[in-house]
From TrEMBL:
Family note: Belongs to the GST superfamily. Phi family.
Protein name, as recorded: glutathione transferase
Annotated PROSITE patterns: GST_CTER, GST_NTER
One Pfam entry name: GST_C
Domain of life according to the entry: Eukaryota
Record flagged with keyword Iron-sulfur: no
Reaction catalysis annotation: RX + glutathione = an S-substituted glutathione + a halide anion + H(+)
UniProtKB keywords: Cytoplasm, Detoxification, Transferase
A single GO molecular function term of this UniProt record: glutathione binding
Localization per Swiss-Prot or TrEMBL: Cytoplasm, Cytosol
UniProt-listed Enzyme Commission number(s): 2.5.1.18
One of the GO biological process terms: toxin catabolic process
Species, as recorded: Arabis alpina (Alpine rock-cress)
Length: 213
């Protein structure tokens, strides 16, 4: 059965889910939700996602929202299909979860407000708080140092294999590059090596092609 993904192909959270589906070779249908017209705040979408965000999925009678919950569910449901994104042992899975939590609570928590101020606020005619952005950048640089140290010891964030720990970072990392923050990655050799590696994956290239069309 084809999974319906309600979202916007240029937004980081839907991209996270789409990338997982491409890695796991899961059939899906992307149903566009127009964020510019606030379609995600309308009653039909609120039945799928009561907080008015994207993405949300429908898999037959099963419905789920929150991108990271969707990642975990489908990576477990299709363990033997496509890329193994979970880790092979209980300990490896714990490390994957650790770095997914790190992405949520440290990396994304700092990067997202920067994107909101530099991109979304001007788009909707609101002023960017440049002082706040610079403060966030300083904090994010310190987080990137932690990643650099981790990747000096490991090929990927959770060890020797590409997993959800890496995948969940990719959409926001890409947005950072687009809006002029690429130096946070390129000035750190291990982080830069990691990004060049994971962004060369066929599934990521397919996602970028989807976003370009």
């Amino acid at each position: 059965m084809v999974v319906k993904v309600y979202g916007y192909v240029h937004a980081s959270c839907p991209q996270r889910v789409l990338l997982c589906f491409l890695e796991k070779e899961i059939e899906f249908e992307l149903i566009h939700v127009d964020l510019d017209t606030l379609e995600h705040k309308k009653p039909d979408h609120l039945l799928r996602q009561p907080f008015g965000q994207v993405p949300a999925i429908e898999d037959g009678d099963f419905k789920l929202y929150e991108s990271r919950a969707i990642l975990r569910y489908y990576s477990n449901k299709y363990t033997d299909q496509g890329t193994d994104l979970l880790g092979k042992t209980l300990e490896q899975r714990a490390i994957v979860d650790q770095w997914m939590e790190t992405e949520t609570n440290y990396f994304n928590a700092l990067a997202l407000p920067i994107v909101v101020n530099l991109v979304l606020k001007p788009k909707f005619g609101k002023p960017c708080d440049f002082t706040f952005v610079e403060e966030q950048k300083v904090k994010l640089e310190k987080i990137m140092d932690v990643y650099e140290n981790q990747l000096a010891r490991n090929r990927y964030l959770a060890g020797d294999e590409f997993t959800l720990a890496d995948l969940t970072h990719m959409p926001m990392m890409n947005i950072m590059n687009i809006i002029g923050l690429s130096s946070m990655v390129t000035t750190r050799p291990n982080l830069n090596r990691w990004w060049n590696d994971i962004s060369a994956r066929p599934a990521w290239k397919k996602l970028i092609e989807m976003a370009a069309n």
